Structures are given as C-alpha cells and as structure tokens.
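Record 1 of the preview.
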Amino acid sequence: MALVFRAVIQFVGLLLSLLGWVLAIITTYLPHWKNLNLDLNEMENWTMGLWQTCVIQEEGGMQCKDFDSFLALPVELRIARILMFLSNGLGFLGLLVSGSGLDCLRIGEGQQELKKRLLILGGILFWTAGIAALVPVSWVAHMTVREFWDETIPEIVPRWEFGDALFIGWFAGVSLLLGGCLLNWAACSTLTPLASGHYAVAETQTQCPYLENGTADPKP
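->
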C-alpha cells in the first residue's frame, strides 16, 4: 500500500509540474500582462505583453505590434523576459529528470538510490522554475499597482490594470512549487515496507532448505 501511495504522489507531483510548465509557457507569450480600457473609446481595448502591444477593436479584431527594442522596454519587462525563459528551461529539465526517477518505470529498477536522487533534483528544478515564474509576474503586478495609484499622473490619463496572463502566471508558479514539493516528499519518504519485504523473502529463502529436509532451523 505504501509503495502504491508513493507512486500516486509521484504521478500527481509530476502532473502538477507539467501543468505549471505549460501554463508558464503560455504566460510568457500571452500578450495580456496588462490591460488598458479607454473611457473615451469604449470599443477599443489595449493589452501589453512581454513581446508586443495589441489593440482590440469590436469591428476590426485584434492588431498587434512587436516592441522595437529590448533595451527600450521598462526594466520589469526586460527582467520578466529573462526569468520566464529561465522558468521554461528549468521546468523542461525538471520534467526530464524527475520523469526518469519515477518508481513506475521499469528502467533502473535496481538503482533505487539513483531514482531517489533524480526525483529530488527534479523537485528542486521545479521549485526554482516556480520561483522564476512568480517573481516577474509579481513584479509587473506591483509596478502596475504603483502606477495605478500614482498621484503625480493626472486622473484623465488612462491607467493600466491586471491582465489575464498575470493570474495564469501565478497559478503556474504555485503549481510548479506544489509539484516539486510532492516529488521531494515522495523521494524522501521511508522505504521501510519495501525493505521489510526483502528481509522477509531472504529469511524465507534461508529457512527453505531446512524445511525441505524436515529439520529445524538451528539457532546460533
């Protein structure tokens, strides 16, 4: 039962990590980190992502324009690009490493210690990927709140608000952290039932010759 429970925890942890990794990739390229609603023209909405700015019109659809220069971006968007790429890369490595350490795989059945280390390393990679996703999302959200309540900006000037990508990014970071925690917990859980089973088999095999001869097992 304990082995089945460990396998289920590993599967759930890997599934959460996979979900967080996919959502982090979507967050990276989704042009909805910030939204801007114009009171003067309610039929037109502006959105901003890490790569482009888009305008959504009820009649003309959505038109996007890529940023001309990386250095011309605000510092939070520049750092966000780097950290989101780092999160995506670490998440991919975590999937490869932790997937190789699952107990349900037939590969490396006799190398339980190696599988345990792979699970722990995969969990650490997912932790780092989750933090790398949460930092830029939270930073952009913080700067959006500061600019929204900045009293030096005239009230007539439209203010940016939270976009859907920020919420997806928060969910992605939390999923990566939870997945890494489950994988590390499963890896660090004791293997007492498995060890006891080995000892029981070994003891039975030792006593078998004496049982076949009809003699008692001599005690040292």
